[in-house]
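Reading a protein record of the kind used here takes only a little practice. The integers have meaning only within a learned vocabulary of local backbone shapes. With that in mind, consider the following protein and its fold in token form:
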Amino acid sequence: MRPMKSRWIGVFLAAAAFSPAFVGTPVEAANDFRLKPGAITKVCLECHDEFAEILKRPFLHTPIKKGECAGCHNPHTSKHEMLLAAESGEICQSCHEEMFEGETKSTHQVFVEGKCSSCHDPHGAKNKMNLIRSGSDLCIECHRDLTERIATNEFEHDPVTDSCVECHNPHTSKKSVKLLVDAQPSLCLDCHDAKDASFRQVHKNYPVQKARCTACHDPHGSNTAGLLFDNVHEPVGERACGECHAKPTSSSPFALKDVGLKLCEGCHYDLVVDALNKSMVHWPMLDDKGCVNCHAPHASPEEFLLREPQREVCGRCHADTVARQARSLTEHPPVAEGACNECHSPHSSDNPFLAKEATTIELCANCHEWQAHSTHPIGEKVVDPRNANVTLQCLSCHRTHGTEYEHFLYFETTDETCVQCHTDFRR
């Protein structure tokens, strides 16, 4: 009789031999199961007869062509869905290693997550590269917001109507952001000849072949002629680049005629004077970049020529505020929807925090009927019992950008909030 220890070692090794963890490199694993000749595909098809139709498709995955079902699937058991020999992304990587090599400047989210089957059929398809849909129809499935906007464009960009992969790499890009197959302006110059007389004329002879094309143009199409973004800075719309830049024949044709606020003041004099006459000025207006900290100087898809949606523009400096709202149990619409200017003046104000109203009560009353909200006394004549130097107002109980508790309260329950002042009721 064998010792007990030896018997347990034998049982462990036997179990390990059939464990998915011992499969090895997935596609190289087919022979590990010692299947009979011809059994790899034949046995599978006896049950999975639907694959008879799949095998008729014009484009088949190489393991399917070779009948290597066990290259990706464990025929016995697995801790992964569909009896996969490993996580789907790991299986794909074992053969397509070149897709994962080297440093990249941008990566497709589904690629990072190993969700290759979101785009590719792992068995076979009617489209090249085993894509589940052809051309841009595949991208539409995820990028619906962009697709809906493209559908309303009056002016189309040809590559967009042809195929997204004309400009974008569907997996990774080693050359540029946004999965672009090449950096700007090289990518654009593959189609647009900068030496062409009409090209030079429309750009007023400025050497834009050295510039970033998307500073003015929307690559996905536009409702403005020339594929300019829908909101265009007036000098750009009038092709009066010389209003802000040096002459195109100068040694530095893109050099600005002045710096920061001084340049913008030439056209926006009233706005600048009004802003500087306030007691508190938003600091981005005053550094060397000035207005272009927040605004695009040429064109933008956003209102007021903002560089990005307002939430992103403000969030670049006020990331803590955006993060606080994300943690808040109750959404404050102006913050959640990125409408910071509902409460704050973006340029300057005579009020703390660049608030649009002199008092918090007046500011909140623009949206909230506070008199119907509560009978609790608030206002200039009501002193906060916790601090005789301040009066009771909305912020005495609520935090405007949200808290971890409901209704922006500082404490978890209403009772806890009330007893901060009404100490006689503390338990």
